[in-house]
């Protein structure tokens, strides 16, 4: 029989971290599950299984294309967690980690230079939608 000087707790509790997925849904996770980028990514499929199917599908699309990141939200600042950052070691029980979707917007502008009657050269920028709309209607854009 093993004697101890003190009593041992009946249960061992580990700290929890809140993961907010890209749809804003909060998931409680064990601190150990969020100790590194790779560990957190390993648990993402289980987290997404708790979401509505359409929300999970959209998030998986971005995850599969690596178009997401994680950040710590302390209520004042957002600190991005990179795969190799030291931020992972600062995660404590109660930390809120936010999964953010990264999108890119392609904006194409067309520009032309024209010379005013006063001799000044001017740049004119036209967005793609305006140009395509004019061409589809058989019109030209003049200034």
Describe this structure in words.
- This protein has helices at 37-48, 53-64, 128-136, and strands at residues 16-20, 26-30, 68-73, 78-81, 96-101, 109-115, 121-127.
- With 143 residues, the protein is α+β, with helices and mostly antiparallel strands.
- It has 2 domains: 16-101, Roll (Ubiquitin-like (UB roll)); 105-143, no CATH class.
- The strands form 2 sheets. It has a 5-stranded mixed β-sheet with strand order 2-1-5-3-4.
- A hairpin with a 5-residue loop joins strand 1 (16-20) and strand 2.
- The protein is elongated and about 75 Å long.
What are the key terms here?
143 residues; alpha+beta; Ubiquitin-like (UB roll); 2 domains; five-stranded mixed beta sheet; two-stranded antiparallel sheet; 3 helices; 7 strands; 23% helix; Ubiquitin-like domain-containing protein; ULD_fung
Rg is: 26 Å
Mind telling me the CATH class of the largest domain? Alpha Beta
Distance between the termini: 96 Å
- The CATH superfamily of the largest domain turns out to be Phosphatidylinositol 3-kinase Catalytic Subunit, Chain A, domain 1
Q: Beta-strand percentage?
A: 25-35%
What is the number of E strands? 7
In CATH, the topology of the largest domain is named Ubiquitin-like (UB roll)
**What is the CATH architecture term of the largest domain?**
Roll
**Largest sheet, order of strands side by side?**
2-1-5-3-4
Give the SSE string. Answer: EEHHEEEEEH
User: Mind describing the biggest β-sheet?
Assistant: 5 strands, mixed
Shape, per Cα inertia axes = elongated
Q: What percentage of residues falls in helices of 4 or more residues? A: 10-25%
Low-confidence stretches: 8-13
């Amino acid at each position: 029989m093993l004697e101890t000087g003190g009593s041992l707790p009946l249960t061992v509790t580990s700290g929890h971290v809140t993961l907010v997925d890209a749809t804003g849904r909060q998931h409680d996770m064990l601190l150990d599950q969020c100790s590194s980028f790779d560990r957190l990514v390993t648990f993402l499929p289980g987290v997404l299984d708790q979401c509505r199917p359409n929300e999970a599908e959209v998030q998986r699309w971005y995850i599969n294309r690596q178009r997401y990141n994680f950040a710590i939200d302390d209520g004042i600042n957002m600190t991005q967690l990179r795969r190799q950052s030291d931020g992972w070691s600062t995660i404590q029980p109660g930390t809120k980690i936010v999964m953010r979707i990264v999108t890119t917007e392609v904006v194409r502008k067309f520009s032309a230079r024209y010379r005013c009657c006063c001799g000044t050269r001017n740049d004119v920028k036209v967005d793609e939608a305006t140009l395509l709309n004019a061409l589809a209607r058989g019109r030209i854009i003049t200034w």
